[in-house]
Amino acid sequence: MLTADKRPTQRYEQVVTEIDHCSDAEEQPVDLDTNHNITHLPSPLPLVENEDLFSTAPNLKSHNDNDLEYISTDVALERIGMGAFQIRILIASGLCFAADAMQVILLSFLSLVVQDLWSLSNDLTAMITSSLFAGSMLGTLILGPLADSWGRRPVFMLASSIISFFGFATSAATNYGMLTATIFGVGVGVGGLTVPFDILAEFLPSSQRGTNLLKIEYFWTIGCLFVVGIAYMTLRGEVPHWRLFVATCSVPCLVSLVLGYCWVPESAQWLCAEGRTDEALEILRHAAALNGLEKDEVFPSNTKLLQDEDEKDASLADLFTPKWRETTLRLWGAWGSFAFGYYGTLLAITKVFAEAETINRVAVGDEEPYSFDYGAIFASSTAELVGTTMVIFAVDRIGRIPSQVFSYLIAGLSVCALCVFASWGFPRYALIGLSFIARIFEMAATCVTWVSTAEILTTEVRSTGHSTANAMARLGAIFCPYLVQGSASLTQIGIVMLLVHFFTAFCVSTLPETKGKGMGAVSEDQPVDSAINRLNLLPLETNDCNEDDLVIQGELS
């Protein structure tokens, strides 16, 4: 039975009038007993067994000041704004996120060093890098779904721990088999790096999400520059200190683990999707205080959070329901091809600027057995700072999809020209310029793909969907070392890379635009207000109703 809480009878009659007007149904009176309890409701308003029906609507307030106010997590995040709370999460997540870039750049140096030290063939050398991507593919398929069932924070901690442990273990490898096994272990942890990205996305207010979410990409670029700097200090000279090189590159992820434990809470959106709204509200109250706000003013004692989603514990099968099937396949195509293109570009640039004639010969006298053009590689890496900054200003102005399509096309043309011109013996400055342009647009494109993917997917499938897309990326990346580090010529590499980038541009062009929309909003097409639907006040089928007719005039008081 519905309790009217002694609200005036005419207010209920007003609600009935609006609904009856919408449905053109025959008017039926509302029966109330002496205690103002509703005993009969007119069609099409269904009988609902809910004691405080009207008090649960987030946009309706009762006359009693002590009644509860229900708000969504999106509204709550807008209230707390952007501040120290999100910056802490950005730092902890960013250091972990950078581990992916650092490992690939690290292996572009390490694979060539151990190839000479252990006299490895081209195929065995390519397998070193491929083992990282194979591990990443397994990690995404395990850690992504775990993040949707266990929560974001524990998987964040687990991924950071795995990367740190196997990173230091790699530095102790004594033979080829142990090296590839430990690098595979690092890859498993790297497979969980969509989770820190998603947890940051889920704590950003929608009005500032696009710009601030892209700032995590700066950590990716800083990670690349860090590896080049460490390589310069440890790999030069007659005896390269590759173990020190690998161990030093594992430190940032260990720092991320410590900071994540101290600073990163569980995602409020995930908690609400699990029905744990009180825990989510307590985290958001803490966030408001860290951002310099008075938490009791931002979230008064009568504030409650709405449960955001009805679905829980997503599985891989959920991605192939009619709701998600097309989007999943499009995302997989985009991620598989963009990873091949991005990582192939990184490896190709290192190959172009490596002095192969000194790497492949035995050291004699004072000559260095390993020689990389560190200046050129470092210069091309700084291009990613430009790419990230450029896309931060563009993504909310021209949209996610146009940004991706344009950037992938320019990146493909640039890396193709780099490889072809290098095979023709073009001067060093021209190659540096082309590598700089390629890295700018590679970074710009992939940044937006990460953001767009997180925005397209809803909370209950976000980590699963994002992680499986990342698994496809690893599958694509597994094959790129065999192209770039194998026996293919630079011209062949350039042509293949161009075709892959064109295919990526086509795939992303088929994805929905998420500019200006809430997280997962592109998948929702509700004919009436979702708060009304949650209360079961109206059926989803509105027939010939005009949506404007569904607005209840006046406030229940």
Automatic annotation (TrEMBL):
Pfam families: Sugar_tr (PF00083). The chain crosses the membrane at residues 89-112, 124-143, 155-173, 179-204, 216-235, 241-264, 332-354, 374-393, 405-424, 490-511. This is Major facilitator superfamily (MFS) profile domain-containing protein. Its main location: membrane. One of its GO terms (cellular component) is membrane. Residues 89-515 form the Major facilitator superfamily (MFS) profile domain. It is found in: Membrane. It comes from Phaeodactylum tricornutum (strain CCAP 1055/1). Keywords: Membrane, Transmembrane, Transmembrane helix, Transport. InterPro entries: MFS_dom, MFS_sugar_transport-like, MFS_trans_sf, Sugar_transporter_CS. It is a multi-pass membrane protein. GO terms for molecular function: transmembrane transporter activity. It comes from the Eukaryota.
